[in-house]
Amino acid sequence: MKRPPIQHSFKSEPRPTYDTAVPYVDPFKLKGPLTPTKRVLDQSDLAHLFECTGLSRVLSVLMNMSQAVAEFGLTDDDEKRDRLSQSTSLWIIEIPLDCDPQRFGNKAFKVWGQRLEDEAEALHRSILGTSHQVIMPELLHHFKTAFGSFVRLDYGTGHELSFLAYLSILHLTRLLTPKDLLTTVLVIYQRYFDTCRKLQEVYRLEPAGSKGVYGLDDHFHLVYIFGSAQLLHQSEITPSMINDRNFIAPQSSLFFNAIAHIRKLKRGPFFEHSPILYNVGKTVTGWTKVHSGMIKMWKGEVLGKVQVMQHFWFTDHGVLGWNLGKEEEECFFLGPEEEQVER
């Protein structure tokens, strides 16, 4: 089979820069309506999207999360990971799956989704407390849309983006502090990633808006941003190992866990079903270029696509707002110095 052309280059991307603090949004200064609505309708809305405060805040949290992961790196110390998990009091999402054999597996996903929607508010009520109840509609919207479409029975990068928005709201309102950035990726996002992989395997979810061989991954993209960040400050694992089926990566490697998931779901030579990742392994020599390339590609192929962003909704003046006036902008400021990520 002829290899399809590769449309994305990872060779000349500059090293990404990071913020030094996660912005803070005071929930007491937010004003309604705080229920998200559809804002991206066509191509003309994308210009505003990249200027709106809501997306800027999500990107700030993403870059700070990547920095925390990069500085921590990889570990195979199970005890260390256990201590990390126990160090946070954050509720970790864990909805039991019905793993019994299903004749129509996809339909069972609707049952799973209905349970998620039914229990979501009760699960979050104790987490938010009285001071943060105002953000409940916005937070729940992104939570409920983060695991796939219970109507179309599919999952894609837009759903993954919703979970990033969910985590961003928790950080921006200080339900999670900058000290929790590392735990957010290595514990919470990891649990989410594992849950979504299981949903795809058990309920055979269709890829949402997949480009097939012309896309990076049928379902995920953020995992490659976090995963490449993990590998920035080490030299033992190189991008060329992406194409080595016999390479056994550390269990904590998000990047290679995602590669293993692809190999499990797809058949045939790796270069045929995953040519972009194959090209990265063949042509890119360092993880810095991989990481910056993944960020640029995510902005173009996820944030820059109407078919994805039309399903990502914004509030008027909420934590992730589409339009913000001067009064609302005053609630957007850097957190206290003592809340900076521990180096």
Oligomer: single chain
Question: What is the succession of H and E elements?
Answer: EHHHHHEHHEHHHHHHHE
Shape descriptor: globular
Q: Report Rg.
A: 20 Å
**Count of alpha and pi helical runs:** 14
Q: How much helix is in the residues?
A: 40-55%
Spans where pLDDT lies below 50 across 5 or more residues: 1-15, 77-95, 325-343
Global structural class: mainly alpha
Beta-strand fraction estimate: under 5%
Mean pLDDT: 81
Terminal Cα separation, in Å? 49 Å
Major beta sheet, strand line-up: 1-4
Total strand segments: 4
Structure description:
One of its GO terms (biological process) is mitotic spindle organization. Keywords: Cytoplasm, Isomerase, Rotamase. It catalyses: [protein]-peptidylproline (omega=180) = [protein]-peptidylproline (omega=0). PPIases accelerate the folding of proteins. It catalyzes the cis-trans isomerization of proline imidic peptide bonds in oligopeptides. The protein has 343 residues and is an all-alpha fold. It contains 14 helices and four strands. Mean pLDDT is 81; it is low at 1-15, 77-95 and 325-343.
